[in-house]
Structures are given as structure tokens and as C-alpha cells.
Design a protein that fits this description.
The structure is a single chain. The protein is α+β, with helices and mostly antiparallel strands and about 475 residues long. It folds into 2 domains: about 200 residues, 2-Layer Sandwich (Cytochrome Bc1 Complex, Chain A, domain 1); about 220 residues, Metalloenzyme, LuxS/M16 peptidase-like (Cytochrome Bc1 Complex, Chain A, domain 1, 2-Layer Sandwich), CATH 3.30.830.10. About 40% of the residues lie in helices and about 20% in strands. The chain is built from 18 helices and 14 strands. Strands 1-2-8-3-7-6 form a 6-stranded mixed β-sheet, sandwiched between helices. A hairpin with a 5-residue loop joins strand 1 and strand 2. Helix 3 runs parallel beside helix 8, helix 9 packs across helix 12 and helix 9 packs across helix 16. The longest helix is centred in the first third of the chain and has 18 residues. The chain is globular, with a radius of gyration of 23 Å. The two termini are about 35 Å apart.
Length: about 475
Amino acid sequence: MRSPSGRLGAVAVILGLALLSGQAAGAGVNLPPTREIRLPSGATLLLAEKHDVPLVAFHAWLRGGSLTDPAGKEGVAALTAEMLRKGAGKRSAREIADAADGVGGALETGATMEVSWVSGEFLSRDHSLMLELLADLLRRPSFPDSEFAKLQARSIEAIAAEKDDPSNVLPAYGQAYFFREHPYGRPSDGDEGTLKGITREDVLRSYRENYGGDRLIFSMVGDFDSRAMERKLRAALGDWAAAPARLEPVPPTESASGRHVLLIEKPGAVETNIWIGNLGVSRTDPDRNAIDVGNTYFGGRFTSLLNTALRIESGLAYGAGCQLLRRTLPGTVTISFATATENTERAIELALETQERFRREALDRGALASVRAYIEGLFPTRIETGRQIAARLAELSFYQLPADEVSGYVGRIAATDSMEVSAVARRVYPSREDLTFVLIGDAAKLRPLARRLGPTVEASIELPLMETRAIGASTPGRR
């Protein structure tokens, strides 16, 4: 990824993230100036001094994530990321944990669909220990056999336990059924079947192929001198070789036409968990600010149209919302909620009526003002700590977003009008004729309704997710 100036080598670029204009009470956010440096390894460093508290926080993002999982090995990138803390350098898993805990630090690892990551926060006086641990985790993990066996067993058990509450797994089933064979349909954490088939050698291969300096975006925020920290980071990471494997481009995502229904049997269920959606937008959609306003109004807060209809006024659900999964390419836009089995048809119809009303009717002046104030008030709380700021800086770099993505956000929200929201409502949110449904519940009671909603395939929640995905992929006439 190129730096904003387009030059390689040591580059110090002030991103210009500054105090927000404060157009709503409490909306001002002070983001420190940030230096961007490109290391010989290809790593991008983002260093922001923030001296109000004696803390240093960082995020290390490596491009790839679970998109690099080989077919049949879904979950290997997630296991690899978790294993980084299970032994690195001369330390065991226990010794890594004790080193961080002993100074009151935090150190975490993980993987998402597009990124593997290490994150942490330490007192500024302990930054040398922090850098030592970071370099060991990224460059010298040992992947002990015993730790791998324990992590693999716990991961399989966790997936099985999550199915006790279908709301935990509903989004994964929705993505798998909607995207089918597309990489976005694969579970980042794998499933019981794929995890069981992963070996320590698979984890080693995933690490060797996909970890390297050319994939690293490293952001640090806190009480340090950026010039001195740059020298230390160059020593720790500057000669890190590139990852051997090529990052394959993700194929385009596509919307689905018509109705498609996946009915998942959950033995003994007394309620139905419901996922309704289609293709949404990417993280960099040009109308993303109007989309934020529109989705907050429709399904993004307690007093949203959806929650008002399904919980506050009708009592059909404990809560209902609309989620936009925004990645490099468009993810899904989905309505989700749970309702008593006997209320399933009524609740679904009310949700669809509410979405159609949102697509059809413009926000009035009072509603628009309320949503703007809500977003402007909440926004500062999401980027006030060093760790939050470091995460936002890494995100900006990863998606190649402009510097004013943060500094101008409140102003753009304040300037969004109802016509813009109406336009994105019609463009982003699907019509009721083009919807994918996932229903988890008592299949015998739900089957007639499912078939009225559209062509239906069935599976059991006891099946591994990838087997359910295969059932959906075999359905004719999907797109």
C-alpha cells in the first residue's frame, strides 16, 4: 500500500488529524498529529504522540486474515493468530502472559476476515518490554504442540457452545448462505469440522506464508517521543522479510435477486432467530456518511424505526436492528431479531413493512436532527483513548481513506440532508422481492412459512457450518 505522498523509504507525513469542529455539544475530538514512516521491510508505521496519560497503545494489522485460509482449512488464520501468544522468543505462553500482566499491560491477538492482528497497551515506562514482546510474537512465535492441541480443543468446544444460543451463530449462517462459494461466506473462526482437520503443520504453513513486513500496518499512540520510537521500531521490524505468499484479490461480490430461504432446525427451540438481507456497501462507499445517518435512523439505535416497530410498539422482539458489514468489497445489509415461534410470520412482515416505509418515506426535520445529534454525541466516545485512536489510524491506512475521514466526520454528518438519506435508502436497502432469509428454530412449525417466503433449503444446527454452506451452494437458480 502506498503512503499518501506516494514515496517509499523513510517518510514523515503529518496526516492532519486535528481537533474536530465541535458542531454539536461534546463533539470535539482531539486526534494528535501522526507521522507516517515506511520501513525497508515494507511495513507502514503510524506514530502519534499523546502525552495526557503515561500509556502507550498499539495495533499491528497484517493484511490477509482468514481470506488466506485454504479450502477445507477454514479457521487456520484465526488459530495462527491466537497461537502467537502461546509461545514466542524464549518465553512460553505462561511467561508471555506473566510478563504483560506483571506490569499491568494488555496484549491480545486475533484474526478477522481481512486482517490478522496484535494489539496492546502498556505504561510508557514499560515500552521496551512491549516492543520486545511485539517483535517476538510477530517474528519468533514457537507454536508449541501442547498449546496447539489445547487451543484447537477449546475452539471446537466454543463453537459447539455458541449454538446453545442461536443469536451467537446467526450472522455466520447468514453470511455463509448468502455468499455461498464467495470467500466472504467462509467462517473466519472455522467450524467444528474444519478446525478438527487443522494440524500444527497447517498453522506453521499459514504463518510462514502470510506473515511479513510487507503486510504490516503498525500504529502507536501515547506517551513517547516519535523520533526515538521510530529508531526502536526500525531495529525491531525494519529487516522483517516479505511474506512469501501472494495476496490474491477478492472476487467481486454480487447481490442476490429473488427470494432465498435457509431453514435451520434447532431442537427444542421456542423462538425463531431471523436474518434477512442482501448485498450492502463497502467501507469506502462514497455515500458512507449519509448511510450512517440512514442506518442509525432505520436500525442503528434503540429508538430506530425497526426497534420501535418490533419491540417498543408491538412487543414482538426483545430488540431488532439493521447491520451493515462493510469490508474492502461490499458485505451484507441485514435485519436481525428473535421472536417467539408463534409470532414469526407477523414479526417478519412487520420488519419488511418497516423497511419498505424507510425506503419510501423521507426523514422529517425533527427525525433528521435527532439522528445527527445522536451520531455527533456518540462519535467522540469511539476515538478518545490511545487504543481507540491507534485502531482508527490502522483502519484509515488499511482502507486508504483520506485524512479527513475522522477530522471532518462530524461536519459531514451535520450537513447530511433528508434527500441524501432517501437516495441511499433506495440504493442500499433491498426491496422485499430480493431478500435472503435465514430462520433458526422449530423447523416443523416454521416450514410452511419458510416455503411461503421463497424457495427453501433445510439444515440442522448440529451440522458444521461449512456443510450447511455446501447445501446452500447446491441450490439451483441462486443468482
